[in-house]
C-alpha cells in the first residue's frame, strides 16, 4: 500500500518575536523549592511549568500523569505534591535514583539527622588519623572528567562514602546518598555549568562534611512539612522510554508532561558522571557504554553501528533535508573527524527514536489523553537550524496524534550564532484509535486498525 502524502509541518501560532530570554522563565521559584531542590539537573525545566500544564489540562486526583523522560523527577514530584497520581520512566541510573528518592517522604526527619551526625562524627575521626589520601580506582578515573575533583576533597568524599555505605539503617541511605550527590556539584567539585559541563579552577580543599550536613538539614526540614500529607501514587521505572509497553499498563495514562533530550550534541551522561561514579553506579567504561546504549540518541557520543531508529524517519522529507544540510555543510567546511561525520546520522536517530517512542506509547494512553513535550530549536553545530518542535509535531501527526498547539516557553541565546532560539511546548492529543492509514515516514507496523 503506498504511503500517504506527508502533512505540512505544524504551524506555530505564538509570536516568534516575544522576548522570553530572561533567566527567570527557567528558574525554580522559591515557593517550589521543597523536595525539587534536593537535587536536580542543571538542564531541568521548572516545577511551575508542570503546574501550568496541570491546570491547562484540568488534571486532578482522578487522573494519572506520565513523564517518559523523567530525569530527576520534576513532573512526578510536582504531581505528588499536587495529589495527582504519576509515573515516570528514566534510563539514567543516577537520575532514576534521585527522582525515586525525592518521592520517598516517609523517612522520619529526626532519624535522618541523627544518622547524618553519627556518620559525620565517624568520618571526622578517620580523617583525623589517615595520612595517605584515598583515590578512585584506575577504571573509575578513566571515565571521570579530568580534574573534576581535587585530591583532598576526593579523599574526604571517599571516606564519607564508606561511612554512608556502612551505616546500619539502609532505609535512610538513599537520602544520605542524595545529599552527597548535591554537595558534589554544589560546592565540593571543580565542575560548573555554563551551559556545558566544564571543569573550572581546582579547589585545594572543600568543606565536604559541613556542606553535606547542611543539605541533610534541608531535606529533613522538607520532610517535616511533607510526611503527614496523604500518600499519592508516584513511581519511576528504570527503563528506556522507547520501550514504554514493557513498563506501562494499557489504557492507563491521562496526560504526559515531559522534556526529552534535544538534538543538541550534549552528552547527558557527563552531567551526572561524577555523582554516578561516587555512588558506584558507574565503575568503568563498560558501565558507561551500557548506560549510553539505553538513552535516546541525541548526540554523537552515544551513536552505535547497530542503531536503527533512523529507519523511523527514512521517508520524512524535512528530517532528511535537515540531515542532508548538516552533511553538506560539513563537506563544504572540510570537517572530517568522527564526531563531525556522525552528526548527520545522530540527527536522524534522534527524530527516529522520538517516533519510536510516540508509536509505542499509544497503547498506554486513554482516549483524549493530552501530552506536553518541552523541546528546543537547535543551531549549535555548523549553524544548521533544527526546528525540533515543529518536526516532532509532524512526526506525531503521522502516528495518529493531533497537534493542538505549539506554545512558546522561553527563548535562549545560541552560543554559536548568538541568535535567539525557541524552547517550545508541543501539545498533542491522542484521539483513542489507531490511524487507518500507515505511518508514512518509516517502519511502523502498529498503525493498522485493531482487529479486536
Automatic annotation (TrEMBL):
Q: Which one GO biological process term can you cite for this protein?
A: DNA restriction-modification system
Where would one find coiled-coil regions in this protein?
Answer: none
Domain of life of the source? Bacteria
Q: Does the keyword Lipid biosynthesis apply?
A: no
**Annotated InterPro entries:** DNA_methylase_N4/N6, MeTrfase_CN4_CS, SAM-dependent_MTases_sf
Keywords, sorted A to Z:
DNA-binding, Methyltransferase, Restriction system, S-adenosyl-L-methionine, Transferase
Keyword Glycosyltransferase part of the UniProt annotation:
no
Looking at the record, the residues that make up the DNA methylase N-4/N-6 domain are 42-92
Q: Which SUPFAM superfamilies match?
A: S-adenosyl-L-methionine-dependent methyltransferases (SSF53335)
Q: Which reaction does this chain catalyze? A: a 2'-deoxycytidine in DNA + S-adenosyl-L-methionine = an N(4)-methyl-2'-deoxycytidine in DNA + S-adenosyl-L-homocysteine + H(+)
What PROSITE patterns would the database entry show?
A: N4_MTASE
Q: Name one GO molecular function term.
A: N-methyltransferase activity
Q: What is its EC number?
A: 2.1.1.113
Q: Which family does it belong to?
A: Belongs to the N(4)/N(6)-methyltransferase family. N(4) subfamily.
Q: What is this protein called?
A: site-specific DNA-methyltransferase (cytosine-N(4)-specific)
> The organism's lineage?
Bacteria, Bacillati, Cyanobacteriota, Cyanophyceae, Leptolyngbyales
Amino acid at each position: 500500500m503506498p504511503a500517504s502524502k506527508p502533512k505540512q509541518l505544524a504551524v506555530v501560532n505564538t509570536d516568534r518575536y516575544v522576548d522570553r530570554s530572561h533567566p527567570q522563565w527557567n528558574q525554580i521559584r522559591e515557593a517550589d523549592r521543597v523536595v525539587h531542590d534536593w537535587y536536580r539537573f542543571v538542564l531541568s525545566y521548572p516545577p511551575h511549568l508542570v503546574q501550568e500544564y496541570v491546570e491547562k489540562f484540568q488534571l486532578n486526583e482522578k487522573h494519572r500523569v506520565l513523564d517518559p523522560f523523567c530525569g530527576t523527577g520534576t513532573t512526578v514530584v510536582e504531581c505528588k505534591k499536587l495529589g495527582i497520581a504519576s509515573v515516570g520512566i528514566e534510563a539514567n541510573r543516577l537520575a532514576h535514583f534521585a527522582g525515586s528518592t525525592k518521592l520517598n517522604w516517609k523517612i522520619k526527619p529526626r532519624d535522618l539527622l541523627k544518622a547524618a551526625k553519627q556518620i559525620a562524627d565517624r568520618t571526622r575521626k578517620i580523617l583525623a588519623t589517615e595520612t595517605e589520601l584515598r583515590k578512585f580506582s584506575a577504571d573509575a578515573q578513566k571515565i571521570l572528567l579530568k580534574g573534576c575533583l581535587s585530591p583532598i576533597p576526593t579523599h574526604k568524599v571517599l571516606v564519607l562514602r564508606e561511612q554512608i555505605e556502612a551505616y546500619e539503617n539502609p532505609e535512610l541511605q538513599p537520602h544520605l546518598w542524595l545529599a552527597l550527590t548535591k554537595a558534589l556539584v554544589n560546592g565540593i567539585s571543580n565542575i560548573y555549568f555554563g551551559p556545558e559541563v566544564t571543569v573550572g579552577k581546582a579547589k585545594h580543599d572543600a568543606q565536604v562534611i559541613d556542606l553535606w550536613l547542611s543539605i541533610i538539614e534541608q531535606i529533613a526540614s522538607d520532610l517535616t512539612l511533607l510526611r503527614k500529607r496523604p500518600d499519592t501514587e508516584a513511581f519511576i521505572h528504570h527503563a528506556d522510554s522507547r520501550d514504554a509497553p514493557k513498563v506501562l499498563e494499557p489504557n492507563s495514562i491521562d496526560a504526559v508532561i515531559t522534556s526529552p533530550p534535544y538534538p543538541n550534541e550534549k552528552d547527558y551522561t557527563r552531567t551526572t558522571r561524577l555523582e554516578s561514579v561516587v555512588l558506584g553506579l558507574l565503575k568503568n567504561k563498560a558501565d558507561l557504554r551500557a548506560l549510553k546504549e539505553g538513552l535516546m540518541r541525541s548526540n554523537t557520543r552515544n551513536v552505535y553501528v547497530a542503531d536503527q531508529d533512523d529507519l523511523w524517519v527514512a521517508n520524512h522529507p524535512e528530517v532528511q533535508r535537515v540531515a542532508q544540510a548538516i552533511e553538506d555543510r560539513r563537506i563544504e567546511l572540510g570537517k572530517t573527524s568522527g564526531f563531525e561525520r556522525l552528526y548527520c546520522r545522530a540527527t536522524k536517530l534522534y527524530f527516529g527514536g522520538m517516533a519510536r517512542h510516540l508509536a509505542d506509547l499509544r497503547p498506554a494512553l486513554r482516549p483524549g489523553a493530552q501530552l506536553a513535550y518541552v523541546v528546543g530549536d537547535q543551531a549549535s553545530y555548523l549553524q544548521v537550524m533544527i526546528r525540533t518542535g515543529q518536526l516532532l509535531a509532524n512526526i506525531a501527526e503521522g502516528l495518529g496524534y493531533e497537534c493542538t498547539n505549539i506554545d512558546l516557553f522561553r527563548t535562549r541565546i545560541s552560543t554559536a550564532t548568538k541568535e535567539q532560539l525557541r524552547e517550545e511546548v508541543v501539545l498533542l492529543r491522542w484521539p483513542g484509535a489507531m490511524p487507518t492509514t500507515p505511518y508514512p515516514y518509516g517502519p511502523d507496523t502498529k498503525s493498522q486498525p485493531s482487529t479486536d
